[in-house]
C-alpha cells in the first residue's frame, strides 16, 4: 500500500517548514519554498482527499467538469456557488476600469467581490466581458489553436489514443501554450498545473501531473483530488481501472501567512482518518455527459476546515 494522502501531505508541509528557503513572489506575500517534490497515490487504496482538514469536494468536481467541457467563463462556477476563481477576474475587472484595488483581507474587497459575482450571475453581457478568463485550462485541453487555424481537442485525442495505443509514451496533455501565456495572465495566472501524462499497464490507467507553482496549503489538496478524480473518469471512459496518481511539484511553497494554519493541520497528525470512497456513475461514457450528480463521495469524516487567505 502507498502512504495515506494525509501522511504524504503532512510530510510535505513539515519539510517546507523545516527546509524551505524564504523567497519573494509575485503577490508580495512571501513564501517558504523548495524546488522539486513528488507524491504518489494508489487509487485502489481510497480516494485521496485530505482528512486532517475538510476539503470541499463539490467545488473540486464542478471545476473539473468546467475544465473538461472546455469552458473558460466564470459564470458556470458562479451559478454553482464555486468561488475558487473569483479573486483574479475581480482584480482584473478593477484594473481594467481604473478602479482602486482594496486589500484582499478587507471588508471593501469582500463586498466588492460579492457584488462582482452577482453581476456575473445575473447580467449575461457583463459575464461575457468580465467573466471570460481567456485561453486557460479548458480552452487548451479542448481547443488548442494550431498554426493552420484549426483547433486540437487534446483530451478527446488522448482518450482515443489510450484506447488504440495504450503503450504509447505520448499520452500527454499540455495547458502550457507559450503563445497564450500573456493573454491567460490578463484575467488570472499562467497555468499552475500545466502538463500531465497518462500511462497504462496491467489494465490500469495512471496519471502524472507536473505542477510548476504549488500553493501547498490551499491549492495542492484541490489539485491532488481533482487529478485523482480525472484519472478515474478517463479510466472509465477507456474501459480501464484506476492505477496511480503521481503528483510532481516544481516551486513548492507555503505562503508566510499560511504557516500558523499549516501547524494547526500538522497537530492533527495523530488523528488521520480513513480515506473516503468515490463512486462514479458507470453508465456515463462520454466526456460531455458527466454532471455533479454522477459522483458520490462516501465515508468522508474529516477534521473541520482551516481558513487561510488567498494570495492574489
Q: Any overview of this molecule?
A:
This protein is of the alpha+beta class. Helices cover 38% and strands 21% of the residues. A six-stranded mixed β-sheet has the order 1-2-8-7-6-5. α10 (219-237) links the parallel β7 and β8. The longest helix is centred in the C-terminal third of the chain and has 19 residues, at 219-237.
Distance between the ends = 38 Å
Main β-sheet, spatial strand arrangement: 1-2-8-7-6-5
Compute the gyration radius: what is it? Answer: 19 Å
- Globally, the shape reads globular
Helix-strand sequence? HEEHHHHHHEEHEHEEHEHEE
Query: In percent terms, what proportion of residues is strand?
Result: 15-25%
Count of runs of 4 or more consecutive helical residues = 11
Describe how the helices and strands are arranged.
Elements: H1 5-19, E1 21-23, E2 31-42, H2 57-68, H3 74-79, H4 87-96, H5 107-122, H6 124-130, H7 137-143, E3 144-145, E4 151-152, H8 154-164, E5 172-174, H9 181-186, E6 193-201, E7 204-215, H10 219-237, E8 241-255, H11 259-266, E9 277-280, E10 295-298
Parallel strand pairs: 7-8
Antiparallel strand pairs: 1-2, 2-8, 3-4, 5-6, 6-7, 9-10
Helix pairs in contact: 1-11, 2-10, 5-6
Brief characterization of the structure:
By secondary structure, the chain is an alpha+beta fold. It contains eleven helices and ten strands.
Amino acid at each position: 500500500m502507498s502512504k495515506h494522502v494525509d501522511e504524504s501531505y503532512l510530510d510535505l508541509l513539515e519539510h517546507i517548514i523545516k527546509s524551505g528557503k524564504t523567497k519573494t513572489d509575485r503577490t508580495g506575500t512571501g513564501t517558504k519554498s523548495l524546488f522539486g517534490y513528488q507524491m504518489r497515490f494508489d487509487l485502489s487504496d481510497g480516494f485521496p482527499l485530505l482528512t486532517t482538514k475538510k476539503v470541499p469536494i463539490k467545488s473540486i468536481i464542478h471545476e473539473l467538469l468546467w475544465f473538461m467541457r472546455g469552458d473558460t467563463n466564470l459564470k458556470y462556477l458562479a451559478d454553482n456557488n464555486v468561488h475558487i476563481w473569483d479573486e483574479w477576474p475581480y482584480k482584473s475587472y478593477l484594473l481594467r476600469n481604473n478602479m482602486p484595488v482594496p486589500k484582499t483581507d478587507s471588508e471593501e474587497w469582500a463586498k466588492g467581490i460579492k457584488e462582482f459575482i452577482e453581476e456575473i450571475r445575473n447580467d449575461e453581457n457583463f459575464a461575457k466581458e468580465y467573466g471570460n478568463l481567456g485561453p486557460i485550462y479548458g480552452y487548451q485541453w479542448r481547443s488548442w489553436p494550431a498554426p493552420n487555424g484549426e483547433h486540437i481537442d487534446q483530451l478527446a485525442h488522448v482518450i482515443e489514443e489510450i484506447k488504440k495505443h495504450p503503450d504509447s509514451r505520448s499520452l500527454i496533455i499540455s495547458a502550457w501554450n507559450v503563445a497564450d501565456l500573456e493573454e491567460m495572465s490578463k484575467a488570472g495566472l499562467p497555468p499552475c498545473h500545466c502538463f500531465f501524462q497518462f500511462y497504462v499497464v496491467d489494465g490500469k490507467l495512471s496519471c502524472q501531473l507536473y505542477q510548476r507553482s504549488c500553493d501547498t496549503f490551499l491549492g495542492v489538496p484541490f489539485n491532488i483530488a481533482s487529478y485523482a478524480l480525472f484519472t478515474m473518469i478517463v479510466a472509465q471512459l477507456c474501459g480501464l481501472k484506476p492505477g496511480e496518481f503521481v503528483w510532481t511539484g516544481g516551486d513548492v511553497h507555503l505562503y508566510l501567512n499560511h504557516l500558523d494554519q499549516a501547524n494547526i493541520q500538522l497537530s492533527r497528525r495523530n488523528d488521520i482518518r480513513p480515506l473516503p470512497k468515490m463512486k462514479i456513475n458507470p453508465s456515463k461514457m462520454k466526456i460531455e455527459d458527466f454532471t455533479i450528480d454522477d459522483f458520490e463521495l462516501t465515508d468522508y469524516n474529516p477534521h473541520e476546515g482551516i481558513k487561510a487567505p488567498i494570495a492574489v
